[in-house]
Design goal:
This protein is mostly helical. Helices cover 75% and strands 0% of the residues. This is Major facilitator superfamily (MFS) profile domain-containing protein. InterPro entries: MFS, MFS_Domain-Containing_Protein, MFS_trans_sf.
Length: 450
Amino acid sequence: MATVTCTAEMETCSDLGAHAKDIAPSEATEPLDDKERMPPMTSLVLLYYFLMLGTINVVITIPTANDYAERLGAGRLFAGLMLAALPILSIAGNLFNQWLLTFVPLKHIWIVSTLFTVLGSVLYALAGLMRFRWTLLIARGLMGFFGAFNLPGIYIAHTVGIHRRSEILFYISACLTLGCAVGPALAAMLEESMKFIKVHNLVLDSDTVPGWFMAAVYLLFTAKMVLCFKDLPRSAHTPSQGRTLQSPSSRKSRLSLGRVAAACACFWQLFVTSGITTGVEIFTINVARQTLGWSTARAAWFVALIMLISGVTNLSVGKVMNRVCGDVPGLLIGQLLACFSCVFLFNFDLASPTLHVTLLTIGLVSVLVIQGLARAWAMSICSKIVPADMVNSVMTHAAIFMSLGRGGGSIVCSVLDLDFFAPLLLGLFAVTLAMCFATRKYMKPDLKAC
């Protein structure tokens, strides 16, 4: 009798074990605290570092772009195209990276991309020696294609839980704005250092030194990535196990038209925010140099100060705003306040330069702070309104629209003057507010969001 009982118990345990093996993968991919999950702090810091480097690489050449282009026989429009080449070519790079993620680990793609960015930076620095203006476009395009701008968003979507994602994205938005502050400041310091050491030749001068500097910085970052960055687990690349980077087409979910419209509204918000952030730098430097008669270094320091104030404010206010209001109310209120901030940017033909600079500073800082917060809310909504098998595609499209905004802002604001700047911003904010308000009820998190 005891033998029969023991045998029955063993069979029961065996059945339970087999059942446990059947449910283990799903439990392993969805732990109880999944919504609070966080990546290793070292990897997160490296991600912030990369985002700042990417933004610096976009804007560090802005103060010297016109001089570099004119030196090679081009004009302001060519300088705007040169600045826009990086974000525009990054669109193709983002799509290429998404395809590579189906069979190549994310960390490997990131490392190779940074090495090609080093190559592009060196090519940019050598354009003066080559005396060929199209080298500038080729170099900036190479840096854009291998910019890997969509990888941070994909990494965050797969490693940060829904409850912590808005907070992390506020920090990311602040890093992007701070990168816009560090870029012009570095450009000014590099230009002053060239004047101090009295070096001016075809290989190294104030126009080429940003390229050499970014090549060295990206090379150091690559070494840190190899040593310290923790890649996504291999199970994340396997379609049959939970959260994946590329799910099979047979399991892909479909979005309703309302969800698609909400995603498009968020994409438009990201497009506008990126265009304004980049455009403000170009517009402010042009106004400071041509209207106020400032030097390149002084104009760069002025832009760096505006961006620094905006970035620090984003960093401090973001976490508070995340607790005070949700993503959707914050997005709507932010666009309404952005419309009112445009009042300070209209051209009132003031006789006092001091008053002119004061109003310009207040308006630009207000717009940048609000748009920085709106960028974080829009990215958070994008990652939550779709199921897990679509988050990779949505975050790639978000990066694409941000790149389009950077490119469009570079071109438009390179030829924009004081009379048209504020009306353009007001129109963009009004359209964004209308789109977000119309789709607000479809911006709720999806039940299958990762």
